[in-house]
Amino acid sequence: MLRIGLVPIVRPLFRGARFGLERASAQALQSLGGELGFELAYVSGPVADAAQAEAAARAAWAANLDLLLVEHVTFATGDVFLPLLELPLPVGLWALPEVWDTGPLPQNAVCGLNLGVSLLGKPAKWFYGAPEDSWFRERLGLTLAALRGVKALRQGRVLWLGGPAPGFFAFDALPETGMRVERAGLEVLWEALDRVRESDVDALAAAFDELAEYPVEVLRPAFRLELALAEVARGYDGVALREWPEIPDRAGVMAYSAMARLADAGHTFAPEGDVLGLAGQLALQAVSGKPAILLDVSHFGAKGLMLWHGGEAPRAWAGGPTRLIPHFNRGLPAVRDMPLKAGPISGLRLLPGRRAVVHGGHLSGEKGYDGDSSWLVAASWAGEPLEPRQFLASWLNHRLPHHLAVGMGEHQPALMELCAWLGLEVLPADPEENRLVWRA
Within this chain, do residues 92 and 187 fall inside the same structural domain, yes or no? Predict the structure, then answer.
């Protein structure tokens, strides 16, 4: 639940300062919180001078807010609200509509909003209208989605278990957003495996209800690994896991079915030790409210771009029946095989140097390679449509790591706003096909 603060700004000379508009709008905003998923955690009295603004700023900061709304009930000069704009937290400037539109000017609130945005020295969001107006609600809903992603990236706690997969040097980078990354070696997992009780494995085997090319008894090592991974992941928002080559060599099974079943239960795993990919997953989940996954670009053809990974996606992503099958290379149990469901997707790839890529498109729902897969048949980059071929060229020209963090639904506007709040540079599309990829 996000925490929002509200500070109404008034100039007593204006008639609108005496109509109680700030009380009515605060009550309406509080009611809106239940619908949009926020708590109105701090409301100040009307602020009419610099001293009151300083006091309201101190109280707002102490309230541990995710967003402060500076409400222009009437016009006011900059000295009345600058202390609020300078707070090191996300700020929205909001103007109420005029109560009438002929005769004496009642509030001049939108002019106050105009003055406010002209004085901004940092990213902020402007709003206009009453809380029940669709324009206000849509803009606020977008900001709330973005700030949920911001909160995940600033306050998340994740485990980097085993480091990156061998030779995947681009996965060495860590988030630069405040996310807490704790490192542990795979010995932590081996110790957890040794503690797994056979009675707990029996319980998982008895409850198993998924189609599989294996008898349940053959899947017992995968169930044992699932229990160990669940123990190791406890208390973390997600785990970036080096799932090969050590796990199949030691446990005799691939980790993907265990990761998939744990994802069904709400855990978030990033394969191949991709911590920045994990951060993107967690942000996408916070924005969309649904599970996010990592995918590779594995083929390009007349149908579009094949997006694929080894079989660790949750059932929420399934566009058809799921089954556990052998791994495509090693032949070991087990990976979850399924088509990814048709529909819009959004992506966020965080990069070193406080950069990011925001992308999206539409999956066809047609299954491709074994594992979890589908075709990206329409693509977009920072909200701008691209042909799949142009998308692939842009991805390669920017020399991006090979994992796409993908979430369900069209959320690129919220992701663009998330990047603005965090001060991340969003890379533009670069679909040029005929030059070298090298950039100084």
Answer: no
Task: Give, for 99, the enclosing helix (H) or strand (E).
Answer: none
- Domain closes at, from 132, 167, 185: 132
- How many C-beta atoms lie closer than 10 Å to residue 318's C-beta? 17
Radius of gyration of the chain from its Cα atoms, rounded to whole angstroms: 25
Looking up residue 80, the CATH number of its domain turns out to be 3.40.50.10940
Give the CA count within 13 Å in the CB-facing half-sphere of 272.
23
pTM as predicted: 0.97
Domain membership flag for residue 150? no
User: What digits encode the pLDDT tens for the residues 168-219?
Assistant: 999 999 999 999 999 999 999 999 999 999 999 999 999 999 999 999 999 9
Alpha carbon distance 339, 352 (integer Å) = 32
Residue 219, in any domain of the structure: yes
Tell me the C-alpha distance between 273 and 172, whole Å.
8
Domain identity same for 240 and 370: yes
Residue 402 lies in a domain: yes
Helix or strand or coil: residue 316?
A: helix
The number of folded domains in the chain is 2
- When pLDDT is cut at 50, 70 and 90, the band that residue 435 belongs to is confident
CA dihedral over 263, 145, 44, 87, signed as positive or negative: positive
Whether residues 70 and 193 fall in one domain: no
Sign of CA dihedral 36, 146, 304, 167: negative
Same domain, 168 and 312: yes
DSSP state of 67: E
Same domain for 162 and 127, yes or no, is no
In a shared domain, residues 79 and 123: yes
- Exposure letters 279-310 (e unless 16+ CB within 10 A, then b): bbbbbbbbbbeebbbbbbbeeeeeebbbbbbb
The DSSP call for residue 330 is: T
Residues 87-138 pLDDT 10s: 999 999 999 999 999 999 999 999 999 999 999 999 999 999 999 999 999 9
Domain identity same for 273 and 326: yes
Taking a C-beta distance cutoff of 8 angstroms, is the pair 336, 361 a contact?
no
Answer yes or no: are the C-beta atoms of 41 and 2 closer than 8 Å.
no
> Domain span at residue 58?
2-132
Query: Cβ atoms within 10 A of the Cβ of 207, count?
Result: 8
3-state secondary structure of 353: coil
**DSSP H or E stretch at residue 412:** helix 412-422
Q: Rounded to whole angstroms, how far apart are CA atoms 324 and 208?
A: 11
Scan for tokens 């005769």, then name that residue: 103
